[in-house]
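Dear H.,

Thanks for agreeing to be a second pair of eyes. The structure we're designing against is below in token form, covering all 456 positions.
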């Protein structure tokens, strides 16, 4: 036993190996020493468990592999073949070309982020972006922060701290990642008053709950679940009217920031910021990287005085948006203002892709796939906290895993092993590649992977 341990090369031998010395030049000496120690530790455990002691070349090789994995550039580009347009694990919305250019300009040099070029004085990073938000939504005023979770938190803290906020029992929900409406309210210093029932709440329930200590009415869009059957919730216009009559602010968390009507694409209606603004809500909140198709951001719209009150709150500085997101958001909003969002914003290009075109693309991959693939009709989801349960008619390439002799899970694992990694989905015991979310320039990567899969 001891002799087997003794056969493991010593740390000094490993560190003196020319292959390891070369790694020290590429990374750093200290970093490689640490990796070598870890690899030796792992080797000792393996030998203890009965494995053969590694040779010096094997150890050098595992140090190189471990270093490459640890310091590989991240994040890596992957091909989204799931058909889920807004996939939170894959970074939600891809940006438009113009948005990428705007980011490059803001990131690669100095910019007039907070400088008024006419008089050379300090400007506001919010002035320009809020003007664009107002143009795109019809709101009177706007403020942009880091994400929608912080936007809502900030709005509640500025408007309703120390007071009661009335929420429908069916909307005191968890949005995801531990973001729960009752907790957010508590953190912002407000207290929750629930009205109605889980499935049915009426405008009158809110009206009856308004009292001396009411700070706001809050409506939260059910963006990641659906209550079906015997249900009712008041339209945002009704709530706005209740608030106006009682002199109580009405806050609307829309979630997605959907500026285009989803119905022409065979989807249910998703609440739109324009409608929320037109209904006269006091403050509306939405994300930048869901159906808006831009960068991570939290966008607050509303009446001038209320937005100014929110902007003055000390938390506003703590949740400030960074300049790269602001640049991307600015370019994204311009697509809507110019009426070109469907053509230029990637998520809308995907959502609006005709199913015939998707079928043609999937059929184009068939030659690379061989006999064990077929083009099938399927449905793809929007995902990412938008349109829960809603799917669109789609077409995809189905890989017959049984014919390949591997399980669907193994097929997906192999697809993830390609460069770039391909992320597919499983449906009815088969692996599916859905062209809806695959960028046109990635078709080559798909075909290369299919050829490699076919050849084992
Ligand atoms: C997604 C979502 C949020 C959180 O938005 P982020 O931009 O991810 O912080 C809040 N509320 C609703 C209703 C949502 O759908």
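And this is the sequence the design step returned. I haven't edited it by hand at all.
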């Amino acid at each position: 036993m001891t002799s087997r341990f003794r056969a493991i090369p010593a740390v000094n031998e490993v560190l003196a190996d020319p292959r390891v010395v070369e790694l020290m030049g590429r990374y750093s000496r200290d970093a490689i020493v640490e990796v070598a120690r870890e690899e030796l530790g792992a080797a000792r455990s393996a030998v203890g468990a009965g494995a053969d002691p590694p040779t010096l070349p094997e150890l050098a090789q595992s140090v190189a592999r471990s270093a490459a994995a640890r310091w590989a550039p991240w994040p890596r580009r992957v091909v989204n073949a799931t058909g889920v347009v807004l996939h939170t694990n894959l970074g939600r919305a891809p940006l438009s070309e113009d948005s990428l250019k705007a980011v490059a300009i803001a990131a690669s040099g100095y910019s007039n982020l907070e400088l008024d070029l006419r008089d050379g004085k300090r400007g506001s990073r919010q002035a320009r972006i809020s003007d664009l938000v107002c143009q795109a939504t019809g709101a009177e005023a706007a403020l942009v922060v880091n994400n929608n979770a912080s936007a809502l938190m900030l709005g509640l803290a500025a408007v309703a701290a120390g007071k009661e906020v009335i929420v429908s029992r069916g909307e005191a929900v968890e949005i995801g990642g531990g973001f729960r409406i009752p907790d957010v309210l508590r953190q912002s210093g407000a207290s929750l008053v629930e009205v109605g029932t889980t499935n049915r709440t009426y405008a009158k329930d809110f009206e009856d709950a308004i009292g001396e200590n009411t700070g706001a009415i809050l409506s939260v869009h059910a963006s990641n679940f659906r209550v079906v059957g015997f249900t009712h919730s008041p339209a945002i216009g009704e709530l706005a009217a209740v608030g106006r009559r009682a002199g109580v602010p009405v806050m609307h968390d829309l979630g997605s920031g959907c500026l285009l009507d989803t119905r022409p694409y065979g989807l249910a209606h998703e609440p739109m910021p324009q409608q929320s603004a037109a209904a006269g809500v006091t403050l509306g909140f939405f994300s930048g990287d869901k159906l808006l198709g831009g960068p991570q951001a939290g966008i607050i719209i509303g009446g001038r005085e209320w937005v100014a009150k929110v902007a003055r709150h000390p938390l506003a500085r703590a949740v400030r948006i960074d300049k790269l997101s602001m640049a991307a958001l600015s370019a994204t909003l311009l697509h809507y203002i110019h009426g070109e969002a469907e053509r230029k914003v990637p998520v809308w290009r995907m959502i609006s892709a005709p199913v015939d075109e998707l079928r043609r693309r999937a059929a184009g991959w068939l030659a690379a796939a061989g006999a064990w693939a077929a083009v099938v009709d399927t449905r793809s989801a929007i995902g990412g906290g938008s349109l829960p349960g809603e799917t669109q008619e789609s077409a995809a390439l189905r890989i017959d895993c049984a014919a390949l002799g591997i399980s669907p899970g193994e097929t997906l694992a192999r697809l993830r092993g390609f460069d770039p990694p391909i992320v597919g989905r499983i449906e009815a015991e088969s692996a599916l590649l859905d062209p809806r979310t695959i960028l046109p320039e990635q078709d080559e990567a798909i075909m290369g992977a299919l050829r490699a899969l076919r050849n084992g």
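Two observations from my side: The chain has three domains: 2-71, 79-88+348-454, 97-344. The two ends are 40 Å apart (CA to CA).

Warmly,
E.
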